[in-house]
Amino acid sequence: MPWxxxxxxxxxGSDTGSPERCPxxxxxxxxxxxxxxxxxxxxxLVAAVVAYLGFRAYQGAVWLLGHL
Length: 68
Ligand SMILES: [Zn+2]
Description:
Layout: E1 3-4, E2 9-10, E3 20-21, E4 28-29, H1 40-66
Antiparallel strand pairs: 1-2, 3-4
The site of zinc ion (ZN) has 7 residues, from loops.
């Protein structure tokens, strides 16, 4: 059920997850299920974390090989 932030209430009648118009203010509100995928900056953050952890794993492997 979509949530209208302008009216601070739920918009009735949503079922398919498509954007709905709030009867109170007329704004288009989207249900949580219809939210787009993660924003680009979140993907960038995840990619950076993965790259960093991979680099750290590589460093750890090199350190381990040097101490065997
Ligand atoms: Zn509204």
